Amino acid sequence: MTEPVVAAKAPAKVTLEAGKDYWWCACGRSASQPFCDGSHKGTGLAPMKYTAQKAGDYWLCACKQTHKQPLCDGTHKTLA
Length: 80
Prior knowledge:
Strand order of the largest sheet: 1-4
Helix content: under 10%
Distance between the termini: 23 Å
Number of strands: 4
Shape: globular
C-alpha cells in the first residue's frame, strides 16, 4: 500500500453543512484539498466519507497523518 502524500503542513478550514456527506482526500494527491478529486486511483488508498453532524467550520487534516481522520489532531506540528 502506498503512503499518503503530505498535501500541506497545516489543516484546511472548511465550512460544512449539517447532514451532508463529504469525501475527504486520504492520499494527499487531490488538487481539490481537502476533498477527493479521484487522484487516489491506483494508489491503494481511498477517500473517507465524512458526514458533518452540525453546520459550521471544521479543520480538516491536510498532512494526512492525523489519528482522528478526517479532523486535524495537530500531528502536522511534529512533521519535519
